[in-house]
């Protein structure tokens, strides 16, 4: 059996009982190591699970499925994914490949940012399309995510913004020369995401405004290390958020749409300033 096992969002303890039983009996255990991270490393997982773990990077997952699933038709193989295996980053391609190879599979679900984002107080059924905000470069500054946020706002829906993760990335030069040299991991912060949104707002300031447009005073919510003991939630204007330090990764950002009074009360619990609380009063929303 090929098992896709969710690890949850915090540390080694967040695996489900079902998932832990699978890990302990599996012939091989892989840890998907490029779409998200836990607050602990591979060594902590190995100590808690009582067995060795093989790191599976992007190349192995996308190009070496034969190696991942070798003999999974006769033995159990566990593929561990931070969060839920089919959550923010889907692994349906692995399922399809398993089916092609006539290998039975099973998914063991767990918490992901897609449901745990409820911690900020905005109701899950009021969210629209989730967007990804990527690292900008001097030559590449995509704005498509901004337009999707505006579509959600126009419908009165909240937007969960997943922030970019760079794991085992190569520079263009090293990639072109075939050198296996990789950059250190990087994680887009809520402050950086807010800065990019502010730049887009500035770029579009000459365009016709609508009621759904964002402004520097628009309220947003940032969450950091959801599920960990040092989880942090802050409510601020985009302008304020751009200068806030929420500490280590992972961060996510939420742009609220139309809010119920209870949602406003919850956001007020995490407001960073009186200025933010002012904008959460009914007459300003």
From TrEMBL:
One of its GO terms (biological process) is protein histidyl modification to diphthamide. Pfam families: TP_methylase. One of its GO terms (molecular function) is diphthine methyl ester synthase activity. Keywords: Methyltransferase, S-adenosyl-L-methionine, Transferase. Pathway: Protein modification; peptidyl-diphthamide biosynthesis. This is diphthine methyl ester synthase. Belongs to the diphthine synthase family. It catalyses: 2-[(3S)-amino-3-carboxypropyl]-L-histidyl-[translation elongation factor 2] + 4 S-adenosyl-L-methionine = diphthine methyl ester-[translation elongation factor 2] + 4 S-adenosyl-L-homocysteine + 3 H(+). It comes from Lymnaea stagnalis. Its EC number is 2.1.1.314.
